[in-house]
Design goal:
This protein has 560 residues and is α/β, with parallel strands linked by helices. It has 22 helices and 20 strands. β8 (197-201), α8 and β9 form a beta-alpha-beta unit.
Length: 560
């Protein structure tokens, strides 16, 4: 095994050579999904080119080849987790399905009214909602573990929440927002004291820690392949064999069936009892390739580099005065969540995207955590061992730019030329004005700048008009819209948002519909308009959904 080389490691990930918005890609969204090395991509393709066949069921050579590779991956996962048997490794679509499997198979048949399910405030929605559903089905109750100031589950209060009525404790190994390792050994120990089961969500831990389920002695452990350089659509449920044997099937059909008659069906042995239908064969085999890839690395060297990268990033981010981490402690893995004073999270993410930087903004599927921390959302930077300190410097440089005064960019914006020359109020710009403005902005960087400037020119909506009725449902940011119909049947609109980017998009949209009749508004082709502006291809799914939500709100208001 060669000593870890960052240059060699990074070279294995071809997507990192891409340009995004005419800038080199800086991918800092690894907590959402990691990029894939060449060997994983080739493994996936090779299956379809050389071994495509269903597994287990046929006697021909292709099926035998596919089955061998498929079950070989299960052996590799067993080794990865130090499980006792291959039968304890169940294939799923991901961590989410793994948790749902346990909730419905074990929970629905085992929980009774008054039984307690213990979660924590730092859980991903995928480790909350399945338990809420099964609690409603069974009459069980949910209790929630608090966090300490460092963002970890509070050890001192464990036995205030875990007790005689506790049947299962389900917690994340590492929070996808805070990046701190939870004291799961202590949690498992206390749970065992009260004969409660434990499920550990390892989605964020699996790429950064050595996980030994035998040493932990947890009852269930779940993770997703795509968080550790593997493909999407494949996940793992580890469960102790004696528990899995007792649990009924989660789904029915295909490989999980042993015999079928109209009088009775008998089910297959583990692990196939829980693997209904045709599996994601290519995904499983590609996961095997990802595990081989990791086995070939100098693990100690990789960890050393990743730790140095984490410390450097934390230090550089800490140097930005306007940046506030959601918890003060340095994370255990390179996940950094923060806000920038005076800037909306989605505006920051969009601005970074305009120069090729991929980060995540919002609540990160942790709404209860956001509420617990008394914030609406945050920016998250999540790094991997293929990221560089030079990329950190570039991101920090861009964040520092955002915290500086906007006076210079405002003075150079075409918005001012148009607005001040002819239309003193930017919310009265016409479609022609907007088209002329964006025709001069050739790159996405410049188009994004004009959107933000339009957002600054948009007149704010009076506080009295910001009501639940005027709130636009479907925008990740808060946005409001009101309409008044004149005596001539034309509508005048006023709008506002807490995000400058959405305010800019509101300005663009209102230019097309303001002072128009309902018929004119319904007839206007908003998709063609945004396409002509050169914005359609650059809108993220969340921004695109926001635009659609605004248009739907307008159509609703004029229809009423």
């Amino acid at each position: 095994m060669e000593k870890f080389s960052f240059t060699h490691f990074r070279r294995q990930f071809p997507i990192l050579e891409n340009l995004v918005n005419e800038h080199s890609l800086v991918y800092f969204d690894n907590a959402a999904t990691t990029q894939k090395p060449v060997c994983v991509i080739e493994s996936h393709n090779n299956y379809y080119q050389q071994s495509n066949a269903n597994v287990h069921r046929a006697s021909h050579a292709l099926s035998a080849r596919a089955t061998a590779a498929y079950e070989s991956a299960r052996k590799k996962v067993k080794k990865l987790l130090n499980a006792n048997a291959e039968e304890e490794i169940i294939w799923t679509k991901g961590s989410t399905e793994s948790i749902n499997l346990v909730a419905q198979s074990w929970g629905r048949t085992s929980l009774q009214p008054g039984d307690e399910i213990v979660l924590s405030y730092s859980e991903h929605h995928a480790n909350i909602v399945p338990w809420q559903i099964v609690a409603e089905q069974t009459g069980a109750k949910i209790k929630v573990l608090p966090l300490n100031k460092a963002g970890q589950i509070a050890i001192a209060q464990l036995e205030d929440f875990i007790g005689e009525r506790t049947r299962i404790v389900c917690v994340g190994h590492i929070s996808n927002v805070i990046g701190r390792i939870n004291p799961i050994e202590n949690i498992i120990r206390v749970a065992k004291k009260y004969q409660a089961l434990t499920l550990i969500d390892g989605a964020q831990a699996i790429a950064h820690l050595k996980v030994d389920v035998s040493d932990l002695d947890c009852d269930f452990y779940v993770f997703s392949a795509h968080k550790m350089y593997g493909p999407t659509g494949i996940g793992v449920l580890y469960g102790k064999q004696e528990l899995l044997e007792q649990m009924p099937p989660y789904q029915a059909g295909g490989e999980m069936i042993k015999t079928v008659s109209f009088e009775q069906t008998t089910f297959n042995q583990l692990p196939h009892k829980f693997e209904a239908g045709t599996p994601n064969i290519a995904g499983v085999i590609a996961l095997g390739a990802a595990l081989e890839f990791l086995e070939q690395q100098d693990y100690s060297g990789l960890v050393t580099y990743e730790t140095a990268l984490k410390k450097y990033c934390f230090r550089q981010l800490s140097s930005i005065p306007a940046l506030e981490f959601i918890v003060d402690e340095e994370p255990d893995i390179p996940i950094f969540s923060f806000t920038l004073t005076g800037h909306h999270n989605h505006d920051i993410a969009t601005a970074l995207d305009s120069v090729g930087i991929a980060v995540r903004a919002g609540h990160h599927c942790t709404m209860p955590l956001m509420h617990y921390l008394n914030i609406t959302g945050c920016i998250r930077l999540s790094l991997s061992a293929y990221n560089s300190m030079q990329e950190v410097d570039f991101v920090v440089q861009q964040l520092e730019k955002l915290t500086q005064t906007d006076a210079q960019s405002l003075s150079t914006s075409s918005v001012n030329e148009i607005a001040e020359a002819n239309f003193p109020q930017a919310d009265r710009l016409t479609v022609d004005n907007i088209l002329s403005l964006f025709a001069k902005a050739k790159s996405w960087d410049s188009k994004h700048r004009e959107i933000m400037m339009l957002g600054k020119k948009q007149l704010p909506l009076a506080a009295k008009d910001k009501t639940p009725l005027s709130l636009i449902s479907g925008c990740e940011s808060h946005a409001w819209l009101v309409a008044n119909e004149n005596t001539d049947g034309k509508f005048c609109f006023k709008a506002d948002s807490d995000a400058k980017g959405i305010r800019g998009l509101l300005t663009i949209i209102l230019a097309a519909v303001d002072n128009k009749t309902a018929a004119q508004i319904h007839a206007f082709d908003m998709n063609s308009y945004f396409s002509e502006l050169g914005l359609l291809q650059h809108l993220s799914p969340s921004r695109g959904n926001g635009v659609r939500a605004i248009v739907q709100k307008i159509q609703q208001l004029v229809a009423d």
